[in-house]
Structure formats: C-alpha cells, structure tokens
Amino acid sequence: MADTKREIERKYQSDGSGLPDLTRVPGVATVLDKGVTHLDATYHDTADQRLAAASVTLRRRTGGSDAGWHLKFPVAPGARDEIRAPLSDTLPDELAALVRSRVRDRDLLPVVRLRSDRDVRHLADADGRLLAEVSVDTVHAERLTGDGGTARWTEIEVELADDGDPAFLDKVEKRLRKAGIHPASSASKLARALAETAPDTTATTAPEAPATAPEAAPRHKRRPRPAGKPVTAGDHVLAYVRAQRDALVELDPAVRQDVPDSVHRMRVATRRLRSTFRTFRPVLDREATDPVGDDLKWLATELGLDRDQEVLAERLRSSLAALPDTLVAGPVGHRLTTWAETRHAGAHGRLTGILDSRRYLTLLDTLDALLADPPLRKKAGAEPDKVLTKAVRKNLDKLTGLVTHALDLPPGTDRDVVLHEARKKTKRTRYAAEAAAPALGRPADDLVTAMKALQNLLGDHQDSVMARKTLRELAAVAHAAGESAFTYGVLHAREERRAELAEAALPEAWTTITEDLRPWTT
Predict the structure, then answer these.
(1) Contact 130, 28 (CB under 8 A)
(2) DSSP string over 203-244
(3) Under a CB-based contact definition with an 8 Å cutoff, are residues 130 and 122 in contact?
(4) Is 465 exposed, middle or buried (0-12, 13-18, 19+ CB in 10 A)?
(5) pLDDT of 241-260, one tens digit each?
(6) E-state strands within 54-179
(7) Residues 6+ apart with CB under 8 A from 350
(8) Separation between Cα atoms, residue 500 and residue 468, nearest integer Å
(9) Is the confidence at residue 394, as pLDDT, over 80?
(10) pLDDT tens, 467-499?
(11) If phi over 0 gives left and psi between -120 and 50 gives alpha, with beta otherwise, what is residue 287?
C-alpha cells in the first residue's frame, strides 16, 4: 500500500568541508548527530527519459528508514510529493499506474544508480521538536545505459520537518550562505547524475520527451512557425492546446489517487481542448482535429460520471444541512450519504479503468503528434488579432442567440434545455477568449470574466434541474422502503425556487454583460 508525503527541501553545493555551526540558526537549540546512513538507489525511466523531462523521479532504494519504491512529483520549486511503496523486486502496479500518462506503452528501465553516504543532523528547538534534517551526502553516480560514465560529488540537503514552517529554511540558508555555501545548480541528484554521466559530455539537461504519432495518423500540409514566444494566430492556438495537453498528463495521477477537485480540473482541460479545436477551425485543419474531438468528448463524458455526481452530492448535503430539524423526517442524511458513496465508488473504479484504456492512451499520443506536427491552415500564419477576434465573436454571437431564445420561452422543460445549451456555449466562448487573451489583452480578459459570471448563473440553474431529478428518485426509494418522503419534497421545492431566482436574474445579468462587452457585440 503506497503512502504520500510532502517533501520540502533545498540542496546546496559542498566542497566537502562539512557544515557550519547550525546552533546559530534562529530557533535551533540543539543539533543532534544521527550518524551515517548508506543509501543505494536505482532510478528508472524510459529510454527517451520521459520522466526526467517532466522532473518526475522513480527509484528503488535500500538503506535508511524508508527503503522501498519512491515516486516523486514536483509541486513547486523545492517541494515534491513523494509516494512510497514497500520494497519489492519489481515496480508495484500502483506506482506504474501513476506514471502511465507519461510513459504510455514504453518500458521503464534502470538508468542511473546512486550510492550515497549520508551524514545526518537533526535541528531541534528548545522543546526537542524536530525543525529540519540536514545531511551531507557523498554521492557516487553510475549511468546504467549506453556508454555513460560515472560521477562523484558532495552536496548538502536541508529537508523541512513534517508540518514545519517553510520560512525556517530561509533561516538555515542564511546561515549556510554566511559560511560560503550556495544553492546547488541542479534541482535534484538525478538531474545532476544524468548531466554528468551522459555519453555526450556536452549534454546538460535531460531531453524533452519526443512525441510519437499513431501509425494511422493522417498527414497534412504543414506550414513552418517561429519558435519561442507566440507570434501568429497559429502560435497562440497551439500554445493553448499545449497547456491543456500538459494539464491532462499532469492531472492523471491525481485523478487516480482521488485527489479532491482533480476530476473537475481534468474534465475542464478536456473540454477546453475540444472547444479549441471547434472554435479555431480556420487555424487547425478539422480533418485532423475532428477525430480527436470525438475522443475528447468521450473522455469528458466518462469524467463527468464522477464529477457531476460529486457536485450534486455536495449540493444536496448543503441543502439538507440548511434545513431546520423540524423539516427533516426520516433517515434522509444516511440515505443521501449511502447514495453518494456508492455512486462515487462505482464511478471512480470505472474512471481508473478508462485511464488505463488503449483509447485514452492513444488520445494522449495523438495530442503529442498533433503538437509536434500541427495541421495548420493558411490563416494560422496570419497576425492573431483579426483571426482570433473573428473566431471568438462567432461563439459569442451563437450564445447571444441562445440566451435571447431562452428569454422568449416560458418557464419549463423547453427553457431548461435551451439554458443548458447556452451554458455550454458560454463555456466555449470563455475558453476561446482564454486562448486569445495573450494576443488580444484586456478585451479578451473582460470577456473571460463576463463568461465566468454567466456560467455560474446558468450552472446553478442546471444543477437545480439535476438536483430535482435526483430528489424525485431518492423520494421514490425512500417511499418504497416505508420512509417519509416529506423532506425530499421540501428540498425539491427549494430547488425549484433557486431555479426561479436564477431565471429571474438572467435578463438583467445578460443586459449588463452585453453593455460591458459592446466592442464584441457591435
């Protein structure tokens, strides 16, 4: 069974002269000598170093108090989440799954072996509470692939204690700098080992993971584009596509671990991609992007099975908690909890299967291939302002038609359906404006803000529609079990009122939006 630990640490260069007096660090009362530990770690990666390119490390280590398999994901500079599994001869399946979005079908091979002699000190306060662990590591690195060589160095590592204040590391660093000790040039031991043991002595960093297109991917006429900062309309669209592809890959492990909000964020990235392909067809050839859009729609639907239920359960729990006790009849809370947990367990189990499916992994490969060799159309090479503005305005015009039509309809099912379509078009308009914002600036930013507000209003209305449907189903089950359905009726009535308020607020909200965004609507 794997467990996760947030690791906050800093690394420093060392000339082998040891540590200064660390009792002079503010807050440190004692420095405890914990002795020398011998560590032996073998790092695994693909032949093209896909994990190293993403600053992800996977190792099997013996020695020390935490021998086993360690998988580390970057969280922020100097902070990583370390997921640990017990020591075994082969990579545990649970860790293999967490790197699958990056590795795909490639083999994980031993690439570097690091043997370290770790001289450890514990910094403690006056109450004996551990503040940080400081170690001097003498490292011997050996490349295990190709014609790589070996390397040796000494470094100092300072790791914050669990639940410690990160500001304490600043105090330690100030003391180290006064002693002439400076931050390491490499972010990790593995990064330094890869650089210093590389067969080509000019290599300084791990190469980026290359994209591999599926054999059946169609070929299209390509147009060159400048590297670096986005310049053309195509550059801006591709930059947005790349950001969403990266989000899918990075969120995959969090979804597998059932991290809160991870399913929602992954679903949004999926929708942003699909929306971008549909909105910017003058930039990207739909012959290539339409099939990808179909797979993205499938993935968003699968993600939605878990996400929609999660949102609905939270809404119903909050509504129930707001009721006075006199309006709660029967085991409503227990039935709601049982319904939510059962649905979530089933949905999450299905979702992890989707993330292991051939269709999903092929989708990731296809996105890589599309970005590596994009199917650009003629307008992709044009200045971004006119091309992107036209695409965004087209979405906004369609949204205007839907909202106008909804306001002309009487309350009821027909209006609910049109408002739901307007909500989806609101999201597409927002995502288009997000993609265009780096080129168009303030007008696009204002549109994003307006669409967020409209999306919240229409979203509350749609959530009310779905909540009422679920409440009717739960009431029927409760009635069949001989329980009172009274409270479900009360909640249903309150949801009806919430929908009425959202519909009543829409005309004024829409008038405000159209007035504020007159440059987009004239």
Answers:
(1) no
(2) --SPPPPPP---TTPPP-------SSS--SHHHHHHHHHHHH
(3) yes
(4) middle
(5) 999 999 999 999 999 998 98
(6) 57-62, 68-76, 79-85, 109-124, 130-143, 150-160
(7) 302, 305
(8) 13
(9) yes
(10) 999 999 999 999 999 999 999 999 999 999 999
(11) alpha
The answer to whether residues 53 and 206 touch, using CB atoms and an 8 Å cutoff, is yes
**Both tokens assigned to 475:** 């009431």
Q: Where are the beta strands (DSSP E) in 144-293?
A: 150-160
> What six digits make up the tokens of 12?
């420093």
Task: Map tokens 């002269």 to a residue.
Answer: 17
Structure tokens at 479: 């009635």
pLDDT of 137-175, one tens digit each?
999 999 999 877 999 999 999 999 999 999 999 999 999
Handedness of CA 337, 342, 345, 347 (dihedral sign): negative
Distance CA 94, CA 5 (A): 16
Beta pairing partners, 12 = 156, 183
Identity (one letter) of the amino acid at 194? L
Neighbouring C-beta atoms of residue 106, cutoff 10 Å? 14
Burial class (CB in 10 A: 0-12, 13-18, 19+), 392: buried
Contacts for 72 with CB less than 8 Å, ≥ 6 apart: 7, 56, 57, 58, 80, 81, 82, 83
Rounded to an integer, what distance in angstroms lies between the CA atom of residue 95 and that of residue 74? 16
Angle between helices 486-516 and 384-408 (to 10 degrees): 130
Task: Name the 3-class secondary structure at 110.
Answer: strand
Q: Is the pLDDT of residue 220 over 60?
A: no
CA dist 252 and 240 (Å) reads: 19
Q: What is the number of other CB atoms lying within 10 angstroms of the CB of residue 502?
A: 20
Residue 63 half-sphere exposure toward CB, CA atoms < 13 A? 14
Question: Would strands 68-76 and 57-62 be described as parallel, antiparallel, or unpaired?
Answer: antiparallel
Encode pLDDT of 78-94 as tens digits. Answer: 899 999 999 999 999 99
The CA distance from 136 to 352, in Å, is 41
pLDDT in tens, 267-305: 999 999 999 999 999 999 999 999 999 999 999 999 987
What are φ and ψ of residue 483, in 5° steps?
-95, 160
Q: Give the tokens for residue 202.
A: 């000019």
Q: What are the strands, taking DSSP E only, across 238-369?
A: none
Cα 376–chain centre separation? 27
3-state SS class at 276: helix
3-state SS of 78-97 is CEEEEEEECCCCCCCHHHHH
CA–CA dist 228, 506 (Å, integer): 43
Residues 6 or more apart whose CB falls under 8 angstroms from that of 31 comprise 22, 23, 121, 122, 123, 124
Is the C-alpha dihedral spanning 419, 424, 429, 433 positive or negative? positive
